[in-house]
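INFO  loader      accepted 1 record
INFO  loader      residues=65
INFO  predictor   begin
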Amino acid sequence: MAKARMVNRNGSPAVEADGQKTIRFKRLADPWEVYEKKSWGQGVEEITVPMVRGETLMFSLCGEI
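INFO  predictor   done
INFO  writer      dumping tokens
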């Protein structure tokens, strides 16, 4: 039996591993992690965050909320 494969909306394979993940923004952003209440920079084009499988991060791109 074939294993189910997770894919993103564009058809590329979904990431399922621990490690550093880079998020790139279409325009300059002030990423604020909502659950941890932590700033990840101001006026940045991208951020690299450490992730653990199963962990969820949620960002506001307009700074602290």
